[in-house]
Amino acid sequence: ELELAPKIQHPFHPKHPLTLLPKPPYYWGKSWCRFCRNNIEGFVYNCFDCLFDLHINCALLQASIAANFPNSLHPHPLFFIQNHNNEVEPHCSGCQKSISGPFYRCSDCAPTFFNLPKECAELPLEINHPCDQKCGLFVIFVALTGITPRITVIPNQVEDWMCKICYEEVDISYGHYRCPASRCRYIAHAHVVEQIRIGELMVASEIKHFYHDHNLRLTFSGKTKDDDSPCDGCTRPISTPFYRCKQCKFFLHEDCAELPKEMPHPFLKHLLTLSNSHAWYGYSTCRACHRVYQGFSYRCYEGDCWFKIDIQCMLLSDTLKHPSHEQSLFLVHNNEGTSCSACFMGLCSGDVAYRCMKLCDFRLDVGCATLPLTAWYKYDRHPLTLTYSDDSEPSQLYCDLCEKERRPNNWFYYCADCDNSLHLNCVIGDLPYMKLGNKFKRYRHKHPFTVVKNIWNCPPCKGCGEVCNGQVLECKESESNFTVHWDCFWRLLEPLECYSTQV
User: Fold this and answer.
1) Which of 215, 260, 267, 433 is most buried (CB neighbours < 10 A)?
2) Residue 249: its pLDDT value, please?
């Protein structure tokens, strides 16, 4: 049996003591509890001078003043409630979920309350912006407080705020993370996923990406089950941390998963939209580097422009300091009548290239400017170095892989330990940015072709008769079963059917 004190000093009402009474002392006979807002008809703790009343159960809650609660989240003093009775059914003003454990409450916000569970109150006030680490995201709790949201909305303009993690609408009346930059529309639910800290960066542990049907989970392991599985966004090798799908072989670098849906390009007046090549022909050709690629790209859909560029080229800086040249190079458009100083291929009027603005007129097309400085060759245990000139005798200028001649001024890969020199394409391959296992179909061939990588026992190409090593296309059906280079694939059969299977 509980023995109640006739008078108590309560943190909800520190000015005066509360007196235990058998019923509310008012002539109308009823009152309401200042904590749970429900009616009181029986025993009550009362301050008659202030007309302040508490249910017995509410008065006995373990509560204390939260002295160090951030003013940026709420302007009034808050109480920390260790537990609550069944009569109180609070909902979080930040995440809108029901509160079952310890929470903070403001009794000054009438007629409703500001409630915040302990786990929401412990969210960091600021996290790094996932797309731009120079820009921070701030947690904002605005519900039921009388605080004006710190978001500028243009009058008479309807604003739809979409969470950039779960892609559901954000009700800005409740707690959320928001970038304070006026032109940045990055916003995220405060509760959408659990948060994981990598160093000082908070990242989502699970996301729903708009180009994949299943949820993607953040992974910290060093390898995928298949070491040849690249990122499905940029098609480059996977590195940690990355997002993966547990239901299928789909992988995304963290940076690729957080690419914005639209981006401007310095040489186009329209915004480019993030697209997936699998939604088209299963592949695309980048207008900047002219490489065939799969995965994500940025495209222009205005009129008959149809400009498309892979995401690596889209994110290139407008200046480049390349070890092949002393001066800085600048990204320029319209290079008609010139050629690349690395491969000596001619540049067209619409091509993008890096150019030295000095009198030397040194230029690099985007394909050569983005070549890896170090690469690996299957028969050499040492790394190969990108090399820019060769002073050897002309009779010594040949590729140690294909055994064809090399031009003296063309770039090549070289191993000083083994004295191996290789053509750029013999190292990089014909299809470095195509995902192994993907299938394509041609009108004049009833079976699909599969992207494969041949290393040992390379068969001859059905088109040219040369050895098919590296990334090639293969028909695996027993009745035909042949292999073909990508370039020969185009000459061998009629145009590509709009069909592709992603693995």
Assistant:
1) 433
2) 83
